[in-house]
């Protein structure tokens, strides 16, 4: 019964992710290289495959995949919150609000309900890998197009040491953020168990 509930929940949440991300990016297909698109679309795809796998094989994927996805989507949420400080312009209309606020909170709820706590902290070292790969994609994009995806840095002006330093800094930031997301997940799972027991 638990597998069926999770399967249907996965498919429902997947449809929300796909609908919101496609409505936002279909008018501007050139922006699908943005991290917001890749994080939301990637989680939507993971949820779709999870639902199918639960119906077919009665089991989900390894928990580390969902924890990594949660860290990525919460990173989008954090970037959105930082934007509220006025550091950069950000808007909260329509699908953008879903992609940066609603979807991260829905996936957090999904994780709290269905995904188990990690029994070891070693896998947390894997969580920043998607961000490091995205930085590699951004560097390749800047080499081809002459600009970075978000235009935060000037293409062609970075030395190897600066690139390596930026990668290490981003890895460290996401590592800390991933660790905090695991702590948040563990805290909410414990609160859920206390609530269920009472």
Please explain how this structure is put together:
- With 198 residues, the chain is mostly helical.
- 73% of the residues lie in helices and 0% in strands.
- The protein contains 6 helices and no strands.
- Helix 1 (2-25) packs antiparallel against helix 2 (35-57), helix 3 (63-83) runs antiparallel to helix 4 and helix 4 crosses helix 6 (160-197).
- The longest helix is centred in the C-terminal third of the chain and has 38 residues, at 160-197.
- The radius of gyration is 18 Å and the shape is globular.
- The mean pLDDT is 84.
Topology at a glance:
Blueprint: H1 2-25, H2 35-57, H3 63-83, H4 94-114, H5 129-145, H6 160-197
Helix pairs in contact: 1-2, 1-4, 2-3, 3-4, 3-6, 4-6, 5-6
What would a concise description of this structure say?
The protein has 198 residues and is mainly α. The chain has six helices and no strands. Helix 1 packs antiparallel against helix 2 and helix 3 packs across helix 6.
- Number of helical regions: 6
Strand content: under 5%
Mean pLDDT equals 84
Task: Write down the secondary-structure element order.
Answer: HHHHHH
């Amino acid at each position: 019964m638990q597998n069926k509930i999770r399967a249907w929940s996965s498919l429902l949440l997947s449809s929300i992710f796909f609908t919101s991300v496609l409505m936002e990016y279909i008018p501007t297909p050139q922006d699908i290289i943005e991290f917001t698109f890749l994080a939301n679309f990637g989680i939507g795809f993971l949820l779709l495959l999870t639902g199918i796998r639960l119906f077919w094989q009665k089991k989900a994927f390894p928990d580390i995949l969902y924890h990594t996805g949660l860290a990525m989507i919460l990173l989008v949420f954090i970037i959105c919150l930082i934007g509220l400080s006025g550091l950069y312009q950000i808007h909260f209309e329509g699908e953008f609000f879903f992609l940066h606020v609603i979807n991260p909170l829905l996936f957090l709820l999904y994780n709290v309900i269905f995904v188990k706590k990690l029994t070891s902290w070693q896998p947390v070292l894997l969580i920043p890998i998607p961000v490091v790969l995205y930085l590699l994609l951004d560097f390749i994009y800047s080499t081809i197009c002459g600009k970075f995806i978000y235009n935060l840095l000037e293409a062609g002006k970075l030395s190897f040491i600066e690139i390596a330093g930026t990668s290490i800094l981003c890895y460290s930031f996401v590592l800390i953020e991933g660790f905090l997301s695991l702590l948040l997940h563990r805290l909410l799972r414990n609160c859920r168990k206390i609530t269920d027991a009472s």
